[in-house]
């Protein structure tokens, strides 16, 4: 790679760091994962779920869902497989992506992680424990399976007109990553750069 190409690549990577935007955070609820007993030791205090489980087992995952507003709201829960968006960010709940994006992926989290209930009507200030069942594949696998759950409030009518005629519509969702492995060993990556 030429010196010019390296500089261009570095500038392209750094450019998004300097983009600013204003948003209004008016989310009406909060979500907190309850870490299970088999949470991996490396992620003991993480804000996501990272479990080691034996093949063929199943367990219930818990999430504290709290209405922080002064009104009644409805919140939906969905589960999906992790994937990378077009801009390189990880999306842990890719429920509406085409199957072509997962060709060759034998274990997809959305096949094994199912919400026990998909919708809650929460009164102002109410807290509930939302649950999802994680069914571990019967055949042992190496590495980690990645996915997650998202919580989305219904009827979010949050739009803002900017001074230059641009209208911003915002939909807030909380996503909680769920990682699954059969053992503590994670294989080395196979990505190589250069020639």
Q: What does the secondary structure layout of this molecule look like, with pairings?
A:
Layout: H1 3-14, E1 29-34, E2 49-52, E3 58-67, E4 73-81, E5 83-84, E6 90-91, E7 113-115, E8 119-122, E9 127-135, E10 144-153, E11 159-161, E12 167-169, E13 173-181
Parallel strand pairs: 2-13
Antiparallel strand pairs: 1-3, 3-9, 4-8, 4-10, 5-6, 7-9, 10-13, 11-12
Descriptive notes:
With 195 residues, the protein is mainly beta. The protein has one domain: Immunoglobulins (Immunoglobulin-like). Helix content is 6%, strand content 38%. The strands form four sheets. It has a five-stranded mixed sheet, with no helix packed on it. A hairpin with a 5-residue loop joins β11 (159-161) and β12. The longest helix is centred in the first third of the chain and has 12 residues, at 3-14. It is globular and about 50 Å long.
């Amino acid at each position: 790679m030429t010196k010019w190409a390296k500089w261009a690549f570095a500038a392209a990577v750094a450019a998004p760091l300097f983009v600013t935007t204003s948003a209004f955070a008016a989310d009406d609820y909060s979500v907190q994962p309850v870490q299970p007993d088999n949470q991996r030791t490396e992620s003991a205090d993480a804000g996501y779920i990272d479990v080691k489980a034996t093949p063929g087992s199943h367990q219930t995952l818990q999430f504290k869902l709290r209405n922080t507003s002064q009104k009644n709201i409805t919140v939906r829960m969905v589960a999906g497989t992790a994937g990378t968006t077009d801009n390189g960010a990880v999306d842990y709940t890719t429920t509406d992506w085409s199957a072509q994006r997962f060709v060759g992926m034998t274990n997809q989290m959305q096949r094994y992680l199912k919400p026990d209930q998909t919708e809650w009507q929460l009164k102002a200030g109410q807290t509930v424990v939302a649950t999802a069942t994680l069914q571990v594949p019967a055949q042992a696998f190496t590495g980690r399976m990645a996915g997650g759950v998202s919580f989305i409030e219904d009827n979010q009518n949050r739009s803002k007109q900017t001074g230059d005629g641009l209208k911003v519509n915002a939909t807030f969702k909380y996503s909680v990553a769920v990682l699954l492995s059969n053992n503590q060993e994670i294989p080395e990556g196979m990505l190589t750069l250069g020639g």
